[in-house]
Each structure stands twice: as C-alpha cells, then as structure tokens.
Amino acid sequence: MPTVPGQGDPIRRRTVLLVAALLAVTTIVLYARTVRFEFTTFDDPDYVTANAEVQEGISARGVRWALTTGHASNWHPVTWLSHMTDVEAFGMHAGGHHATNVLLHAASTAMLFLFLVTSTRRLLPSAFAAAFFACHPLRVESVAWVSERKDVLSAAFGLASILCCGIGAKRGAEEGRITPGLYALSFFLFLLAVGSKPMMVTLPFVLLLLDYWPLERWRSGLGLRLIREKIPFLVAVVAVAAATYLVQRSGGAMRAGGTIEFSDRLANVPVGYVWYLTKTMLPTGLAPLYVHPSLPGGTPLLPWQVVSATLFLVGATWFVWRYRGAKYARVGVLWFLGTLVPVIGLVQVGGQATADRYSYFPSIGLSILFAWGGEQLLGMSVRCRGGRRTSWWTRLTVLVALSAVLTTCGAVTWHQIGYWQNSRTLYERAVSVEPRSPLMNNNLALILSEAGDLEEASRTFVGH
User: Fold this and answer.
1) Is 212 strand, coil or helix?
2) What letter would DSSP give residue 290?
3) What are 58-87's pLDDT values in tens digits?
C-alpha cells in the first residue's frame, strides 16, 4: 500500500494535499445540482423561510436570540448564526443556502482524509474511508436539506477538532500530551460543534478511541492522563446535554416520544442499530421519515426481530473485540455504536424510528472499519500466496473493487439527491416508502391542494 513519508518529503506531501483537494472537488460536483433546488416545507420554515429572526440576518439582537432561544426544540446557537450568515450573503435564494451545506460536507471529507492519512500514514485506505463517507446515499438528507445545516456544520467543526488533536498529539508525542495551542483550538472547535448540534456530545468519547488507534497514545502510565485531558470536554458535555434536555422537553419535542412506552423504545434500539448497518451496506428505500413502530403508521416490531438484532450486535461486537491485531475494527465499531447513543431512541425525540441524518457522523466509524478491513484482507491474501510484495494483478483487482463500490454509491446518491428538489418530490418519495405515515401523507396533500389538485389531495389526506 502507498505510504506517506515524513514531513520532509515535499512530493508526497503534495500528493496528500492533491488527494484531499480531489476528494473535496468530487464531493462538490456530486452535490452541485442542489444549488438549483428549492426550500421545502419540511422544517425549512422553522429554520429559515418563516423565521423572522433568521431573516433579519446578523445583528446584535439576533445573536442574543440565537444564544438563548429554544426555537425548533433545540439549543444550537451556532447553527442559527450560520443560517443568519447565509441570509446576509444570499438573502432568500435557496441555492446559496444549499451551497453552504455542500461546501461544509466537502470540507469534512477533506479533513477526515487528512486526519487519517497523517495519523496512519496509509494513503489508500484513508482516501477510501473519506470517499465512502462523502458519497454514500445516507449522507443525502444531511447535505441536500437546508434544515440539516446542523449536521454538516457540527461534523465539520468536530472533524476540525479531531484534526487539531491529531496534529497536536504528533507534535507533543515525546511529552505524551497535545501541544497547548492545538489543544485549546481543538476545545474551542468542539464547543462550536456541540453549539451546532448537541449530538456531538459524544466527541470526547471519540477522542479517547482515537488515542487508542490510530494515535497510539494509550501507553503505560498515560491512560489516566488521557482521561484528565478530556475533563474540560466532559464538563461542556454535561452543560450542553442538560440545556438540550430542558429545551426539548419545554418545546414539546418529547411529546411524541412520551406516548411510547420505555419497553417499546428499548426494543427498537437493537433493531435501529441493525437498520443503520443494513442501510449502509444496502442503501435502498431511503426516505425523510421512518415512523416509529409504536406510533400510528409504523410497522410493529416482532419479537424475533428484536431478539435476532440483539444477538447479532452482541456477537459482532464480541468478535471484533476478541479479534487480535485489529485496533481499527474496535475503534470503528465503538465509534458507530457510541456516537448513535444520543439519537438511538432511549430518550425519544419526535416520532421517527430512525433517520438517515442521524448516521452522518457515526458512519465514519463504519467507513474506517471497511477501509482498513479491506486493506487487511488484501494483506492476508498476499501472505497466503507466500509473497512479500503485492502483485500488480492483486492491486488492480483491489482498485477495481474499491472503484466499483464508490461508483455505485455515487450513482445511488445522485438519484437520491433528486428527491429533495422541492416539497412535492420529497413528500411523494416519502409516501412511496412509508405509505401509512400520517405526517408525510398530509404534507403531500397540502402541497397538492396548493397546486390545485384537490381530488388527489383529498385521496391523500389521512382520515378523509
């Protein structure tokens, strides 16, 4: 596999920067047509089109409002400021707001690659992990939906924080600590991340995982120091989690979840995890809303589904944990499992069982698992052949296979993006996937009614 030499080699350093730029540009090209899309009536009025404070742009009053409001049942002041900045720059032209989402996604892709390649010195798996993250169809909801600015914004700040930690850990390796300046910058970026979306409270957990691999900082006598290093992050986590809980409860976001018994929520947890994994492997039937099994319009869970999902998760986690020489696998699996905890449904917010957008940051764990797993399988194949070097045929086969995976993901993503061009195409897609969803049917009925198609609207409206 290609490696990245030391910092003194300008040619290879240029190669790394070239690959990072290529990944970012490819991501932008894939999502470029969203700049022609409209706002939708699905949450966009709350966040932009009917939000008087946001439409005023940046102002002292607007900043105070962003820092103190619980509007839309969330506390994410940085996201509000981001929407205000877009209004200052683009007014109410939807294309500009979409473009910001695309650029943030491209930046996250480049930063993920830069962290992985500088920490592992493995060019091919780092590039594949970043590309798989960038072009997977599950990313579409987060990028093509203006209201999900919080997803792409929080992940961009989170990955920037991780990158600073990675660079700082390399520079302070002899002392076993992160250099003070980069540590402070990483903490500041973390505050921006949780201020963009509270789901990023899991970032300190991710940083501890990355200390284990690929930064390899878990050495004798350093474990306690690494935990102490994360204390400021954990204090911020407690404050943000408390604020978010109070805002969501007072804003009514938990009312739908309050009608769901805890036993039903608990049963949906293992099924939800398996759903995210399955959709990562086979991303078909994606929609903006999947109704919780315990709510009207949802498909009730059967006991065998809960039991089989639980056994699969326990077995897979045990296998990965016991498999020697695969630190990347433990990190990838725990990243995926751990970062989904805030949205897996133990504390139910809204009426969804799962959501494409919730996989945005957690999916990086699976991207790492697949990328380094593929590299290890190639290495095992070479050893089985008894050779010291990988043959050109094996390398070509691997490159063709990786290219096929990414090309397929890109093609499905391109198709999925089209459903987000306006409210009608979005709701028609939602109803085709979840035909019994009251919310999606009634939203579509309203759009049809406004378009003058009263007969079709009457048939679509739930309860008519």
Assistant:
1) helix
2) E
3) 999 999 999 888 888 788 999 999 999 999
Q: What is the C-alpha separation between 283 and 348, in angstroms, rounded? A: 24
Q: How far apart are CA 221 and CA 278, in angstroms?
A: 40
Residue showing tokens 């409860």: 249
**395: which 2 tokens?**
């390398």
What are the tokens at 164?
């600073």
Residue 166: partners with Cβ closer than 8 Å, 6 or more residues away: 115, 118, 119, 210, 215
Q: Count Cβ atoms within 10 A of the Cβ of residue 228 and give its class: 0-12 exposed, 13-18 middle, 19 or more buried.
A: exposed
**Which runs of E-coded beta strand occur in 158-294?**
290-291
C-beta separation of 203 from 161 below 8 A: yes
Quickly tell me which residue has 């991501």 as its tokens: 27
- 352-354 and 290-291 strand pairing: antiparallel
Confidence (pLDDT) at 158: 98
Q: How far apart are CA 180 and CA 231, in angstroms?
A: 15
Beta bridge partners of 122: 3
Q: How far apart are CA 367 and CA 355, in angstroms?
A: 18
- Which pLDDT score, from 0 to 100, does residue 384 have? 43
Predicted structure pTM score? 0.93
